[in-house]
Amino acid sequence: MQGGGHGPAAHDFGLGADQVLEATVVLAGGDVVTASPCQNSDLFFAIRGGGGGTYGIVVSTVVKVHPTTNVVAQQLSFAPLNSTYMPDFMKAVQLMHKAYPYLLDNGYSGYGSWSIASPTPLVYNYNYTLGGAIEANFTTGFTHTIAIFRQTSERAQSIFAPALRQLEPFNGRSLFVNVTYSSFPTYAAYYTALSGIESPIGYSAAIGSRLLDRKALRSSRLNETLHILAGTPDQFTSVNLVLVGGGQIARDGADPFSGVNPAWRRSYIHNIVARGWAPGADEATRNAVYSDITNVKVRAMKDLAPDTGAYMNEADRFDPDYIADFYGQNAAKLLAIKRKYDPSSIFYCPTCIGSDEWEEDPTGRLCRVASE
Known about the structure:
Blueprint: H1 10-13, E1 20-26, E2 32-35, H2 41-47, E3 57-63, E4 71-80, H3 86-105, E5 109-115, E6 123-129, E7 133-138, E8 141-149, H4 153-167, E9 175-184, H5 187-195, E10 205-213, H6 214-217, H7 222-230, E11 238-243, H8 247-251, E12 267-276, H9 283-304, H10 322-327, H11 331-341, E13 358-360, E14 366-368
Helix pairs in contact: 3-4, 3-7, 7-9
């Protein structure tokens, strides 16, 4: 919540941080205060998107509630019929990226992922016919689940029709393409059936991300960037798409008490790239993966979208530009609030506001950076 907070309903109702109406906060000196538009409004601004764990300890919040609604969900999957059709697969991935601003502007939102060599299947147990029926799991593939609220299935299908027409020439010729629709009477029913998936924990990986705006998704560099993100098959790279931008997230940019990175307000996709390593991998192997994420894949996304930033909760821990990327134009204001409420820097995290004033010594202790 304190860093932003996205979810399947964010496009229609706003980020998690934008739901907070009031908070109770324990300050570094031990005082317990109320943060709201009327009391300690600067602190209220900071904890609503300016990063967690650095201004105070939030112990309770009052949040908005919203009426439930019907939901129409669409599940799309496509994969190359064999490895010779990888160029068509990458063309289809690019087509979908270009289609997302239109889809989100018309009410769709959700999540997706793609890979040229996923460690586990992305497209499961589908039958397709190519000289006979074949059942296959695809480790090269693209999939998304997106949904639209307060609409009929017919309207949902008509909105997606232009994107589907661009995919149809590939279907059965070079790609397997599958599209299904499901209707749910409530948001809870939709979330339980299709979106309430808990990811596994306890595995090792390096991740990086970038918020992609309309300019990036229309850029002539998009195709090159997607190929850089795809990497090589031996890298087992996964790309995850958080398709929640626009809508209420954009409208909430007018909130004077929002500390959320302003890049969220003008972006459509929170694009996450991830690579892992085998258990027991040596330090050189791990460092090579980290370097590829920071210096190759995230660098490519920054070149594609130089005017946005990254979502701090799912970003590159080693981003050398983390202050600008995670906090954007709010960084200076947030630092002033940090110094007001935590002047002794009791609260610290490696990429929080104010953390650049500290460094770790060889023993792991924190030391203030010497003033020049």
